Amino acid sequence: MGFEPSERALTISAQVEAFMEEHIYPREHEYEAFTQDQNNLWKTPLFVPELRAKAREQGLWNLFLPAEYEPWSPGLTNVEIAHVFEPMSRVLWAQSIFNCNAPDRGNMEVLAKYGTQAQQEQWLQPLLHGEIRSAYAMTEPQVASSDATNMELEIKRDGDEYVLNGRKWWTTGVINPDCKIMLVMGKSNPENDRHTQHSTILVPTDTPGFTVERPLRAFGSLHSPGGEGECRFKDVRVPVSNMIKGEGCGFEIAQGRLGPGRFQYAMGFVGLAQRCLELMCERATQRVAFGEPLHAKTSVQHEIARSRCEIEQCRLLVYAAAEKMDREGLAGARDHIAMVKIVGPQMAENVANRAIQVFGGMGVCQDTLLPEVFTRARFCRIADGPDEVHMSQLGKLTIRNTLNTAKAS
Ligand SMILES: Cc1cc2nc3c(=O)[nH]c(=O)nc-3n(C[C@H](O)[C@H](O)[C@H](O)COP(=O)(O)OP(=O)(O)OC[C@H]3O[C@@H](n4cnc5c(N)ncnc54)[C@H](O)[C@@H]3O)c2cc1C
Asked: Are 20 and 26 in contact (CB under 8 A)?
């Protein structure tokens, strides 16, 4: 197994690090102050498009899309992507500067993989150019959405159109004025078996009958300028050409969409947790309590040591997942993909939690990114499927693989 960065990955990582030093870290407080100001609700700080243009000029753009998607992809392997994702994830909003943020990256991958030429021209190209944003609408308030086969939003064919009726919530990014397109999952073929009843269809956000009814707060935050919305679809009509891949493929698309996204997402947590660890070490050397700096206290040393172990374990697991994807594709890497989804957010939640304790009162206010890392890690143990669902999948896979190996020997 080779996890070492290639020359190309080393060069790009160094460029990303330099970009972070020059343009992103110096603006962290400005970004926080702007987005927390209620007068700026759903607005993006002016420097964001400027930084996106700079990143694009430097070729630090769309790096999330693996080589198999050429000509859309910049051509990196999954292991190379894993290496560049850590430095670009050390600030909560930095991935978006490089056009590598969720949910756009998963949506772009779906369109690159399954989109027709017309869908790619109309929606993939502007997304890849960073001209628009997108959302993925699967979860519904009235059903347990950790089971994707439960979705009820109706997609009914009527001549040359599909008509959509139903509700969605927790649709990330949909409130941002730049969000122009949604990938909506709904039930189109109730007569089919459980896994082929659903479809995924493109719905422009300005389609009559679609409304965002309210923004949701996650742990009290509106997450402006993206936001998570509760949405209604009332007789929403779109042309049949907006169907992605075909009727009944919604479940397959939902599963595939989150494959490479999952290790990138877990590496995002490695970047954030590493930052929390560095902050914790700095604080422990600066702060003196009861006659000695915090770093001299055994309990603080142990929290730092535990954090370092957990971060390194997760980092190596992400590299292993990426390497397996390069070698065996998504199907072969399924067990590792489940592992990183389980391990990444929990690890970051633990590390941020410890760092908050070492920071004392400062750890829970807006002066560091710690509270946001902690809350993001916590809700990501639910978003994209709760921990328990991935653990059950991994448990079943492990039992099956173990039995197959035993039979073969
Ligand atoms: C901040 C945030 C952003 C999100 N963004 C999006 C988005 O962009 N698009 C989108 O479609 N959705 C999004 N979601 C929704 C998210 O994917 C769902 O909340 C998640 O899939 C769980 O569905 P549910 O809320 O209906 O929980 P339920 O399905 O009701 O599950 C509730 C709980 O039941 C337990 N449970 C469920 N299944 C099992 C099982 N098999 N074994 C044991 N216990 C189980 C778990 O503890 C689970 O947390 C987001 C959620 C959050 C919080």
From this structure: no
